[in-house]
Design a protein that fits this description.
40% of the residues lie in helices and 23% in strands. By secondary structure, it is α+β, with helices and mostly antiparallel strands. The structure holds adenosine-5'-diphosphate. Residues 121-337 form the Histidine kinase domain.
């Protein structure tokens, strides 16, 4: 039996496991498939031919279709179901107007939350024994004189590796806290110059171990800032750590600051491997690691966390880079910013 192509297309749409809604250029509903009826609790007979903006404001169809979901999918919770909406403008040849695709992502989101909770629990539990091990290593370092000199090197390596492991665990835990809105930022008035000097000293040591040189170009006279100094130190330590890590031996890392136009600008520049232009826009995404980062240890979380911390201070973070030549990360912190205690939350923006 021959089925007409249009009827065939309509039958296929009915069988799809995702909702489809088509509006014409004036916002009139032209099509609602049965999955969309189910997801939006609507009977198509009641809405076909009607303009969406004339529907009662609280109807799910109105709520879902009035979101701007063209550039990136939008997620909405409707009576316990999480629906992901994505819309596409259709060319006149395909009937024009706007096509909406609706997916039920409730199970996926629940699974993701459970996975994250599991990772958070695991990393938290890994931290306690690691802290004990680090305590004993530190105790042995303190007793260096009593220990055979041939073991000093081993001890130093154990100390470095356990500190690295702890910092990676902290990154995973903080990424979870960020997602759950639990990363606390406690700001108070502080003098940032000693903080920058501390980061600079640590950076100098790190660069020396790595065989690179470190230049510090810090400005004087920075007015006191409202900061969470622990979290902001972490941002600079992460940027400096990355600069050292991604710069081959005998490179140069420059740590500088300046006050201009109501902002403190802190920059970390390196002469390292750089980041290709096509990867640059994704550099702050969760878990993103550029192709060139394979072979270097890391989680791909440091920049995501740093960005969230800086933005919680009303600031911004940016990067300029040339592949093979080096990178420059800039942090801008406003000199005046209200508010002192807040917790930060970022959307679950993952790399693709
Ligand atoms: P990690 O360093 O743990 O991989 P980050 O979130 O700190 O994670 O950085 C994400 C990615 O950004 C890195 O894996 C690397 O590809 C790139 N990147 C960051 N800083 C630099 C840098 N200074 N030079 C070159 N690439 C960098």
């Amino acid at each position: 039996m021959q089925v007409e192509p249009e009827k065939n297309a309509a039958m296929l749409l009915e069988r799809l496991d995702c909702g489809v809604v088509h509006l014409d250029d004036t916002g009139k509903v032209l099509l609602v498939n049965s999955k969309a009826e189910e997801l939006l609790h609507v009977q198509r007979g009641r809405v076909l031919g009607r303009r969406v903006d004339m529907l009662p404001l609280r109807t799910p169809l109105y709520r879902v279709l009035s979101e701007d979901s063209q550039d990136a999918p939008v997620e909405m919770s409707l009576e316990g179901t999480v629906i992901q909406v994505r819309s596409f403008g259709l060319p006149a040849g395909c009937g024009g107007g706007e096509l909406y695709q609706l997916r039920d992502v409730t199970a996926e989101r629940k699974e993701r939350r459970q996975r994250e909770e599991f990772v958070a629990m695991m990393t938290h539990d890994l931290k306690s024994p690691l802290t004990v091990i680090m305590g004993y290593i530190q105790a042995l370092v303190g007793e260096k004189a009593k220990i055979d000199a041939s073991l000093h090197l081993f001890l130093g390596e154990m100390d470095k590796s356990s500190a690295k492991m702890l910092s990676m665990i902290d990154d995973v835990l903080d990424a979870y806290r960020l997602e759950a809105g639990l990363l606390q930022i406690d700001r108070c008035r502080c003098d940032i110059r000693p903080l920058l000097e501390g980061c600079s000293r640590d950076g100098e040591r790190e660069a020396a171990v790595h065989g690179s040189s470190f230049q510090s170009e810090l400005c004087d006279e920075i007015p006191p800032l409202e900061l969470d100094s622990k979290q902001i130190s972490r941002v600079f330590a992460n940027l400096i750590g990355n600069a050292v890590k991604f710069t081959p031996r005998r490179g140069t890392i420059t740590f500088s600051s300046e006050v201009r136009d109501g902002f403190l600008r802190v920059q970390v520049a390196d002469t390292g491997i750089g980041i290709p232009p096509e990867e640059l826009p994704r550099i702050f995404n969760k878990y993103f690691r550029a192709q060139g980062a394979h072979g270097f240890k890391g989680t791909g979380l440091g920049l995501t966390i740093s960005k969230a911390i800086v933005e919680a201070h009303g600031g911004s973070i940016g990067v300029e880079s040339t592949a093979g030549k080096g990178s420059r990360f800039s942090v801008l912190l406003p000199l005046r910013e209200e508010g002192s205690h807040l917790s930060v939350k970022v959307q679950g923006q993952e790399t693709d």
